[in-house]
């Protein structure tokens, strides 16, 4: 499969210019940063609380920005122009995901700085964060493709923000409601479990199952997103 | 002449509504082909099938010798340009930035932006934000985007519907230039003057079927009643047959200085459409 970097970067640059002038969407970047700065000042933050900020970043910044970008393209009928151009499905999806991805890494890095978080194995945690970001980009793209406007996107994302940001808390009630154990397999829960393992000295070999589960989410979400995208190419 | 578009017995049914029923036509290389019909006659559906945005229920559609559905492959799409009635632009970006994106997507030099903006009479507005453009200007930028990459085949769905006469002329001039460069143009419109001005051949589409297909000139000849109308100084108008008797009658009026004006009764495409379909074009 050939991928034109020129086309990919053209879409990225266009999205960057467009988003920088769209305060309604770009303002969401500030929310997790504000939360991280606020929590950071309190000192000695538990890992669970820190990861609530990171998972919120992945939902609000990664998934929501992606969802809003795609939904607006649909609303303004510009997505169809991209689909009718020589850009391939992967060039368009990757180009449109690149901005959310870059913004996510920046916000996660700054949040970690504010929270004074330095994982014992930076490479393992970074790999897990990158995989998670790809999943959330896929989620945002799929939701964006299913909505009709940027306004609708900001509503449809809400249940996902709840589940993927605060879903880790659901397992506290698992003793009473056993089906809630399923929440342990959510990507956000796996990210937290992996981070805890890393703090106990685990390396790649010890957390492969966590990475594997997140990777499965990525594969499934990518397949769903590509299928929805291809369906949207045709009326 | 090599056919760029070939359509055979094309049909499209939405639920229990027939949008297209047994439509067949060819469009030759370098030809400007007009697809004329009122709203809801199936013009846009045809464009959507030909550009692989929709699948047909029955029949065959070929573009550049391959099934139209092949245009879903990215490498095939660089040969076509499309302007539809709902083509969009990025409102927060300038005209230039919008076109620059498509230069990169189609691998076209940025110098082409100046050329296309000149063609649509918008060379002074390239730095303007799209959000600040009027409806007519938006349509012209969309047109510029559609032919930015000098497509071999250009689909235009009502290209001048939002334009004033001055800018419409600019567009016609631009399309004429593209035609001279060998671009094949598939144009849908309900503007008969536009069809007369631009099209080599036109097809009248009504209720999903083609009612007539020929050059505007041939159609006018086919439907003319071979008369002229002579307006006389006394205010009367006389319809005279074209022929020996009519010629002597006209000669007499003219030699007696009784004639104010002589008008051809050749029908317009609009008149022919109404006669054939019983419907007005709107």
Automatic annotation (TrEMBL), chain A:
The keyword Cell inner membrane does not apply. Keywords: Membrane, Transmembrane, Transmembrane helix. The chain crosses the membrane at residues 21-39, 51-71, 92-115, 121-143, 155-174, 207-229. One of its GO terms (molecular function) is ABC-type transporter activity. The keyword Transmembrane helix applies. InterPro entries: ABC2_TM. It is found in: Membrane. This is ABC transporter permease.
From TrEMBL, chain B:
SUPFAM superfamilies: P-loop containing nucleoside triphosphate hydrolases (SSF52540). The keyword Kinase does not apply. Gene3D superfamilies: P-loop containing nucleotide triphosphate hydrolases. CDD domains: ABC_DR_subfamily_A. Residues 5-232 form the ABC transporter domain. Keywords: ATP-binding, Nucleotide-binding, Transport. InterPro entries: AAA+_ATPase (IPR003593), ABC_transporter-like_ATP-bd (IPR003439), ABC_transporter-like_CS (IPR017871), ABC_transporter_ATP-binding (IPR050763), P-loop_NTPase (IPR027417). It comes from the Bacteria. This is ABC transporter ATP-binding protein. It comes from Cytobacillus horneckiae.
């Amino acid at each position: 499969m050939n991928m034109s970097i020129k086309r990919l970067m053209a879409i990225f640059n266009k999205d960057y210019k467009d988003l920088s002038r769209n305060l309604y969407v770009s303002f969401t970047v500030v929310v997790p940063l504000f939360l991280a700065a606020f929590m950071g000042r309190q000192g000695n933050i538990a890992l669970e609380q820190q990861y609530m900020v990171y998972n919120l970043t992945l939902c609000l910044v990664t998934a929501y920005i992606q969802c809003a970008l795609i939904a607006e393209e649909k609303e303004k009928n510009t997505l169809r122009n991209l689909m009718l151009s020589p850009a391939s499905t992967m060039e368009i999806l990757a180009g449109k995901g690149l901005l959310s991805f870059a913004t996510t890494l920046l916000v996660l890095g700054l949040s970690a700085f504010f929270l004074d978080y330095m994982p014992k194995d930076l490479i393992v945690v970074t790999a897990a964060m990158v995989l998670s970001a790809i999943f959330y980009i896929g989620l945002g793209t799929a939701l964006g493709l299913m909505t009709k406007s940027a306004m609708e996107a900001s509503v449809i994302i809400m249940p996902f923000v709840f589940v993927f940001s605060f879903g880790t808390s659901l397992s506290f009630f698992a003793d009473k409601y056993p089906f809630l154990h399923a929440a342990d397999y959510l990507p956000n829960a796996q990210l937290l479990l992996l981070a805890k393992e890393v703090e106990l000295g685990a390396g790649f070999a010890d957390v492969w199952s966590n990475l594997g589960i997140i990777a499965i989410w990525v594969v499934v979400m990518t397949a769903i997103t590509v299928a929805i995208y291809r369906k949207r190419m045709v009326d | 002449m090599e056919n760029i578009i070939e359509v055979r017995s094309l049909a499209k049914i939405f639920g229990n509504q027939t949008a297209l029923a047994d439509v067949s036509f060819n469009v030759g290389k370098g030809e400007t082909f007009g697809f004329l019909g009122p709203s809801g006659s199936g013009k846009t559906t045809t464009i959507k099938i030909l550009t692989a945005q929709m699948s047909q229920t029955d029949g065959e559609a070929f573009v550049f010798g391959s099934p139209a559905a092949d245009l879903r492959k990215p490498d095939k799409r660089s040969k076509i340009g499309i302007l539809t009635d709902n083509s969009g632009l990025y409102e927060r970006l300038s005209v230039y930035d919008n076109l620059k994106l498509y230069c990169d997507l189609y691998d076209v030099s940025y110098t082409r932006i100046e050329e296309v903006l000149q063609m649509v009479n918008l060379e002074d507005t390239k730095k303007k934000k799209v959000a600040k453009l009027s409806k007519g200007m938006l349509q012209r930028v969309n047109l510029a985007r559609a032919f930015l990459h000098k497509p071999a085949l250009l689909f235009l769905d009502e290209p001048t519907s939002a334009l004033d006469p001055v800018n419409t002329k600019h567009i016609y001039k631009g399309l004429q230039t593209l035609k001279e460069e060998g671009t094949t143009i598939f144009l849908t419109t309900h503007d008969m003057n536009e069809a007369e001005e631009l099209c080599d051949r036109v097809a009248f589409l009504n209720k999903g079927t083609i009612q007539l297909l020929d050059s505007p000139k041939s159609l006018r000849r086919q439907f003319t009643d071979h008369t002229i109308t002579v307006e006389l100084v006394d205010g009367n108008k006389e319809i005279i047959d074209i022929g020996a008797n009519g010629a002597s009658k006209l000669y007499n009026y003219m030699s007696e200085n009784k004639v104010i004006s002589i008008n051809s009764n050749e029908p317009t495409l609009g008149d022919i459409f109404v006669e054939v379909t019983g419907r007005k074009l709107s």
